[in-house]
Structures are given as C-alpha cells and as structure tokens.
C-alpha cells in the first residue's frame, strides 16, 4: 500500500477518505469550521466523510455517555468553541469485515492480506459463490486467480501455488473434500495517468483523423475476404502447449463426496 498524501478539505473524496483516521476527520472539520467559505459546504464534506465513518452528535454531554461511545470504538471531540454551543462529535471509521462492505471506493485502500481475511470470514462456497458485482469490485483493485487441485498436489514443488506465492500473491485455501480451491490475490499497481498535454495531443490527433474520415466522400476500402477468413481460421487454432496448470480453473457444482477420487487413480506423472 502506498503512503497516503496529505489530504485537505478541498481534495477530500469518497475514495481517499478511506485513507484517513478519526483524528484526521476532526482536523478537517475544524478547518471547515474556521473558514467561512468552507463552512457553507459543511453538508457536502460531511456526506463524503459518512461514506467511510459513522458520525454521531453527543446531545447529552456527560462522562458516562461519552464513556459508552468510547467503549464502542468511537473517538469523541469538540468541533469549534464550546461557547458556540456546538455539540461534541463521536466518530468511528467503518470496519471492512464482510465482502458486502467492499466498494469501488475502498477496495484500493486495503491490503491483499486484509482482503484474504474478509474472504475467509465470509466464505464457504469458493470464489464463484460471490456475486458478479462483488467479484467486479474486488478485481478492480486486485489480480485474482483460482485453481482447484487434489490436496496432496496443491503444494507440489515448482507448481502454481509456489509460483504465485513467490510472485507476491496472498492465498486462501478452501477445502472441498479431497480437493482444495486456492484463491490468489495481489494488489494491482495504481494506473499512471498520462500528462495533460499528452492527452490534449491525442485528442487533437483523434479530431484530425475524424476529419480525414469525413472527407473521404463515403469511399470505403475493399476487404479481402480470403485473407479475413484465413485470419479467422488462425485464431481458432488450438495449441495444447498453451494449456498450463494456471489455466485450470474450475468450480464444481456437485458435492465434495461426488469428487472423492482415490489417490491411486491419480498418476504421479499427471500435472494438474
């Protein structure tokens, strides 16, 4: 995970708010309270903060009440001057415990090991048991691959498991009878945005290309049908040398008992 950059009120977003902790939120709210222009947009800032934090006003400012909030993991502080009659605020960062807590905004703010913890806490059926929407969220921030192998083959020296771990992947193993589904997760690198002047150049080139197309007076290039068919045939050619252990990805619909393969039925020379 990258070190967080200094986040100000003006740069606060529903994504980077997940990089902050409770004390950071109090600091930002204090800055808003002191700036008249920012204060006009207080509702906007609190709406962003509430996507990652629970915020409650303490209407009864008594030690026993504050203690109850603190016992629940909240941090309590006063925003603004007490004489301004601002209530104290109790703030707590929302935990990511279940797969349903994962969003496009927070997925890049957890580590691969944290993701494995969340998956392990919610799992039972394997990767395919997750809804497509949750899979999409996870894969927006992590490289995910799975394999299902007999348990005595999963940790074979030089096999997929060893290669993935050596490549920095975290792994979750889910037993399925005599087989094990392994789910590998690794954080995706942050995409590097192109400098704005390059983006402008590309845009200008696209506009010029579109103008050229408009000036062709509807002329179209002939398509060589024979070459097209040949290329299509080439794409369908199957090369069994490309079939590797990593491409073996299966989630079984039947019960583990129906997959009860005897060890002696598996040849020592076979590679899954």
TrEMBL record:
<feature type="region of interest" description="Disordered">
    <location>
        <begin position="196"/>
        <end position="272"/>
    </location>
</feature>
<feature type="compositionally biased region" description="Acidic residues">
    <location>
        <begin position="255"/>
        <end position="272"/>
    </location>
</feature>
<feature type="compositionally biased region" description="Acidic residues">
    <location>
        <begin position="215"/>
        <end position="239"/>
    </location>
</feature>
<protein>
    <submittedName>
        <fullName>Uncharacterized protein</fullName>
    </submittedName>
</protein>
């Amino acid at each position: 995970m990258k070190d967080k950059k200094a986040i100000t009120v003006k740069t606060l977003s529903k994504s980077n708010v997940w990089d902050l902790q409770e004390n950071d939120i109090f600091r930002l709210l204090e800055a808003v309270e002191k700036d008249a222009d920012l204060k006009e947009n207080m509702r906007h800032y609190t709406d962003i903060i509430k996507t990652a934090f629970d915020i409650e006003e303490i209407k009864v400012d008594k030690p026993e009440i504050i203690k109850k909030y603190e016992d629940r993991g909240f941090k309590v502080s006063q925003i603004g001057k007490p004489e301004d009659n601002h209530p104290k605020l109790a703030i707590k960062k929302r935990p990511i415990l279940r797969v349903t807590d994962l969003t496009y905004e927070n997925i890049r703010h957890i580590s691969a090991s944290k993701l494995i913890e969340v998956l392990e806490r919610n799992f039972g059926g394997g990767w395919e048991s997750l809804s497509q929407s949750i899979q999409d969220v996870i894969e927006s921030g992590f490289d995910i691959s799975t394999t299902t192998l007999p348990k005595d083959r999963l940790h074979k020296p030089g096999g997929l498991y060893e290669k993935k771990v050596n490549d920095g992947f975290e792994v979750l193993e889910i037993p399925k009878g005599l087989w094990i589904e392994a789910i590998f997760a690794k954080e995706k690198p942050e995409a590097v945005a192109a400098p704005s002047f390059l983006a402008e150049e590309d845009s200008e080139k696209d506009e010029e290309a579109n103008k050229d197309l408009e000036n062709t007076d509807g002329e179209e290039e002939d398509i060589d049908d024979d070459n097209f068919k040949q290329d299509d045939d080439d794409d369908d050619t199957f090369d069994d040398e490309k079939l590797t252990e990593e491409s073996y990805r299966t989630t079984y619909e039947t019960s583990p008992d129906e997959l009860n393969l005897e060890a002696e039925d598996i040849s020592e020379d076979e590679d899954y």
